[in-house]
Records
---
Amino acid sequence: MSSKEVNIRNKRARFEYHLLETYTAGIQLGGTEIKSIRNSKASILEAYCIFDHGEVWIRNMHITEYENGSFYNHKPRADRKLLLNKKEINKIEKFLQVKGNTLIPLRLFISEKGWVKIDIACAQGKKLHDKRQDLKAKDDKRDMDRALKK
């Protein structure tokens, strides 16, 4: 196993959405995808999850082609199946039936056993005034920390 820890984050998720419930899911990968992920050559910034025929899929997640792969290389933006148990899938399906609800990836990482896992969250989009409040709270916290430091 590689000694370098893989921890790919979606930094915009907490700013753009109200996160309600999180799940940790496995990802069904094939071929050279795991090698690219171990080299931290993946991005989940534009990714989102969909529910289709009783399964949850991640769409638009970019995994760069493995540089040492030949014609066996994978497609960079293919849909990938998320591995969840049936109770979680049913809860997600009920949550996504409400308009305005979405399922977004938060973090892509490798577990202690060497499996690729992804943290996903049930979320609702924030309004502009909510984003402004978050920015104001962040600025206030920064100012208080500066004042305490002096």
Note: The first helix runs from residue 13 to 16.
---
Amino acid sequence: MDINQKKEELRQQLLEQRKSISEPEFYGASADIIEELKEQKEYQDAGIIHCYVSMNERREVETRALIKEMTARGRDVVVPVTDFESRTLTHLRLKSFSDLEENRWGVMEPRKGEEVTPEEIDLVIVPMVGGDEQCNRIGYGEGFYDRFLKEVRCPKIGLSFDVNIIEELPTENFDIPLDKIITEKRILTID
């Protein structure tokens, strides 16, 4: 079995595992992960924070409350906008959560806003299907974040439920490891 087949198999297992998380467990563990994120120096020191808007029905670690809180406090928040044609992300400054609308894939995105370059970002909060103990992540397999993370020089923190962290993911040379992965039980860092 080649590495792509292995990754796809793992991705499906991890997505199934994530789907089985009950709603109370999902919101409780998400809240614990976000509280831990807020304790991190990278989060506290960041001027411009790039954060994914969680797809709660897909059981991504819940970030909507965090985004609402950050915008209400006047923090500089940037969210991704997906271009499925060019398979890239653009990054728009978000003034208010109410500026977000669902795109045709069900992802919440701003319709307009000031674009921010990857070089301007101080912290990226990364979505993930799962990860491993070496801070590698596995996403949905489209490569949007892999391409984006290559361009950033700031810390990259992934949010995941502990059940979706395995010992070791199959990786390829284009896979970009994260600086930290925060789960409801632990913080993994690159040694």
Note: The chain has one domain: 3-189.
---
Amino acid sequence: MDNSKTTFETIRTTRRILHQIPELGYDLPKTHAYLKEQLESYGYEPTTVAQHGLVAVKKGRGDYGIAFRADMDALPIKEDTNLNFRSKHTGNMHACGHDGHMAMLLGLAERLSSNDTLPFDVMFVFEPAEETYGGAKDIIATGLFKQHNIQAIFALHLDPELEEGKLGIADGIMTAQDGDFDMTITGINAHGTQPHQGSDAVLAAANLIQQYHTIISRSVDPIKSGSINIGTVIAGEGRNILANQVSLTGSIRAFDMTTFELLKTRMRQIDQGIEAAFNIRINNRITTLHPPVYNDHTLFGTFCATFGNQEVTILKPMMLAEDFSYYQQVMPGLFIMLGAKNVPEGFIHPLHSSKFNFDEAVLLKGIETFERLIDMMAGIRV
């Protein structure tokens, strides 16, 4: 039988099973059970980490190892595709390609399961809560990377903006430092026809939103980049009542901590000005989240030399956020985009879209990329 066909059939089946059982955050019992069963069937003894994450290791001949990561969690999105393997968990969807990421890593684990000539250990990391809490930190805290002397880590991420099969990568900074903010603006109720007797939280919110959106254009060096987005606004009790409370949530991002801290400072200053101008109170909780993904320069150069100009597209830094950055704080690593854009087939919808999908054949390219990375690392010692 044609082994490549068998591998494709297996990886396609894996992806479709996982696509139908999307789960959120750390709470991934079905996903965990399926992956654990598959890994055990290949002869591995996987370790459960970070509640429902998994780590398995293929032993090699050396005294060190490298790791590959796949994220496991889905998104709270209602699927809007015509697939015959749609999500069975209404309101949840693998809209960021994590089903494909897991299928690729599981496919690599299967291929390596009978390989007794590996020069070093290969660790397979299945990480929960990438979309939310940063499951990477919990996996690092287990000490497994130190235990297996892991010297480098790699991850592939499907990218519907990059031509199918291309490998996209940046030298150094690739994604942004991100943060969230949760804000409550508190005013005083009054009748809508007697506004002088109250303090209008909605009017204050409207002015605050406008001023926040001047920060990037007027406070940030034009040669640098940042982003402030307000995603939700909840307010009001009645059409003829001055609202006494508005709740807002949003996100902030930048490629360096100096700019990130500047955004936070300017937001605080605007908060104080709005409080004084509108006689309201603001409680703004700003949470600093994942640091920027920073690809190791030496590994980047070796990667480009190994794969060549025909396969590699050099990317500009993206305002996306990724907790793969935590791994890169403790070891060198590369975060690589795997192109999934196919206009004739209609695979054009962005990440986090309810219509996101891809040609599963590209997952074979991902497995082959992992294997070539192993060969690449066999020639160097980080």
Note: Residues 177-288 form a domain with the Alpha-Beta Plaits fold (CATH 3.30.70.360).
---
Amino acid sequence: MAMPAITPAQKYWRPDDVWALPDDGKRYECIDGELLVSPAPRARHQVALGELFAILRVFVMTHRVGVALMAPSDLRDGDRALVQPDLHVHRTPPTPHDDESTLTQALLCVEILSPSTARYDRKLKRSLYQRIGVSEYWIVDADAHLVERWRPGDERPEVLSEELAWNPAGASAPLFIDLRTLFAEVDRLCGALRVD
């Protein structure tokens, strides 16, 4: 979830520049010199994130394939990028300001789509995750009830609306997520909370 900030054209943003920004409650990221600034997510985004995190957390703990983390959690690619995916599964728990190998340790990165950030999630972040070799990148559209799955080398996403299977290295069995059930629960919770 990110929007470009209005910055001087000559400024090339690096992770250290982002870490030097004041803590003002916004999410700051940079990719290839571009600063991305995210406002607070809407409630539907957070509900979808929470439901998916609960599923992934149990799976990765049970199968001991890593740790599931939600933003804010920095992932760095040297001086080229600093991102905070909405959700990611990391082989080992990253530490603050971890070294440049951090992003390459991600097994899965997930962004919950927002109308204001769709272009960046689908293009800028997707390109970064594919370039780095993140095994899977999911773009979750809670409004349309679907997931776009990207893998390194993909030119088009696999669009899923019924079931999502994930089989990370080291797991003794794949995870199967019934997307209809997941999105029905998101809709139910949002309805109960009376939020979008």
Note: The helical segments are 15-19, 43-63, 118-132, 179-193.
